[in-house]
Write a structure and sequence with these properties.
alpha/beta; Spore Coat Polysaccharide Biosynthesis Protein SpsA, Chain A; 2 domains; about 35% helix; about 20% strand; globular
């Protein structure tokens, strides 16, 4: 393998999960072209001892997933970055596969598949087979699926919108708008048809639907012009019927009419 291109595993973490995360990260085999960065929010105890020089810790005084992702972009200094959370499962073979991908690829952004921790043969969600990646496909991508060319991200001054995402009033769609910004800047995307990370598929603690989530979804749809109108209509009927809450549909329209720039 050509080891010229390097990768940062950038974990977003809360203080109460830091110790367990560090213990898990000790299982990752050290490599010259691999760095591990942990961005910690809401920490209350004193800084824990680092068990390995391969793990870098950055403590933030504020909260918000987008702020954490942006801190990772700021502090990482490798060619590529993989945005991760403290509850994912990674194996050394997965990391080796990603390192192989970035050595030979010419794409600025990769999307990998997420499998289930509990069931090895199941996927975290349904993945459609695509002949070509289109802008609208970015709406189905989650943060932990994203491996980005960090050189390109920094050169293009791409950042997550810190007014949206977990920890804000609008706790959704931060990764989708980040990717749309990248698309609009001219970035190329490749969707990898392979599971390279795992997450729990037991969704007891998922964020419940709210007016603010649907409002930012509507604002995100506004970035697709006429296609956005079709998205809005589809989502309006789907979510209003599924959740039996007309208010969610109204919030979609509100966000769409305001436009995404309102939330920047």
């Amino acid at each position: 393998m050509n080891k010229n291109r390097s990768l940062t595993l950038a974990f977003s973490c809360l203080g109460n999960t830091l110790t367990s995360l560090l213990n898990n990260l000790e299982l990752i085999t050290a490599k010259e072209n691999l760095k591990i960065l942990v961005i910690v929010q809401k920490w209350e105890a004193k800084q824990p001892e680092q068990k390995s020089k391969k793990i870098d810790l950055v403590f933030l005084d504020n909260i918000g997933l987008s702020r954490s992702r942006n801190a990772a972009i700021k502090h990482a200094n490798t060619n590529y970055i993989w945005f991760l959370d403290d509850d994912v499962a990674l194996e050394n073979t997965d990391i080796d596969d990603v390192l192989n991908i970035i050595q030979t690829g010419v794409t600025e952004f990769y999307r990998v598949k997420v499998g289930c921790i509990e069931w090895k043969n199941k996927l975290f969600k349904n993945y459609k087979k695509l002949e070509k990646v289109r802008k609208i496909n970015l709406l189905q991508v989650s943060s932990i699926e994203i491996i980005a060319n960090l050189d390109y991200v920094k050169k293009s001054q791409l950042l997550f919108n810190e007014n949206i995402g977990l920890g804000t009033v609008y706790p959704s769609n931060e990764e989708n708008n980040f990717l749309i910004d990248a698309w609009d800047s001219g970035a190329k995307f490749t969707f990898i048809d392979k599971v390279l990370i795992r997450h729990t598929c037991i969704f007891d603690d998922r964020i419940l639907a709210s007016d603010k989530i649907f409002e930012i979804k509507g604002a995100t749809a506004s970035r697709f012009n006429f296609l956005g109108v079709l998205l809005l209509c589809r989502w309006f009927f789907r979510f209003s019927i599924f959740h039996k809450n007309l208010g969610y549909g109204i919030s979609l329209i509100k966000g769409f009419l305001r436009g995404y720039k309102h939330y920047k």
